[in-house]
Amino acid sequence: MREKNSLHSELKIGFLESMSLSIVPQFLSNFKTRVGTITCLTGSSDRLIERLKKHDVDIIVSSDPALKNTDWKRILMIREPSVALFPKGIYLGEGRKNLSWNQLSLCNLPFINSYGKSGRGKLVNNFLITYGIQLVGRIKVDNLAIKLSMVANNSGWTITSPLSLLNYPAFTKDIDAIPLPAPGMERRIYLIANELFPQDLFEDIAKEVCKLYSASVLPSLKTLCHQNIGEFHIRQATF
What we know:
By secondary structure, the protein is an alpha/beta fold. It folds into 2 domains: 11-78 and 188-234, Periplasmic binding protein-like II (D-Maltodextrin-Binding Protein, domain 2, 3-Layer(aba) Sandwich); 80-179, 3-Layer(aba) Sandwich (D-Maltodextrin-Binding Protein, domain 2), CATH 3.40.190. Helix content is 31%, strand content 24%. It has helices at 24-31, 45-53, 101-105, 119-130, 144-152, 162-167, 199-224; strands at 11-16, 38-43, 59-62, 72-81, 83-87, 111-114, 139-141, 157-160, 175-179, 186-194, 233-234. Strands 2-1-3-10-4-11 form a 6-stranded mixed beta sheet, sandwiched between helices. It has a 5-stranded mixed beta sheet with strand order 7-6-8-5-9. The radius of gyration is 19 Å and the shape is globular.
């Protein structure tokens, strides 16, 4: 009777900032008939994890798996490559397809890093430490628009997800997305929830996010980053 009368419980969900325009609006439209009310927050992974800890949200889409929280359930939904973003037309030597990390570190532009506690910040810093790579730059930013604006204004370069650039199309004409040298840097996107969160709703949300990413986002990403086409992976609906 509750289902027939749409008397479902409230859904409190947090999404990565990079999904705020490309996925979130359609997700909310599709899910509005499945629950009574929806509360949606967006932000970086570290902030979403804090909101989940404080029960401000019940489920989050995060690039940080938050493995220290062993009582949470999680599922890997999406794997996507990272790219280097440079001001449009910058000269990086002959053959951008064969760039080395040494060339990037000596490109005469400062590296704009992500905030260290964010999912992207952890990913980049762990990668650089693991492979002994040093990138010169003294600015760390937790906001995508700020980083893209600085790159577009020739104030530096950064490493991020192609989804970030897709989320702010106004910057596309002023920025080049360039594949990273080997070994590449992969971002993983998880769905994470408290262990008491209903399993059927957990699975439905995972399927919906993967479906929207595949249908509405992936085609544009493959056009934007055609050299990375084979590096996008989406979980199939095999729950």
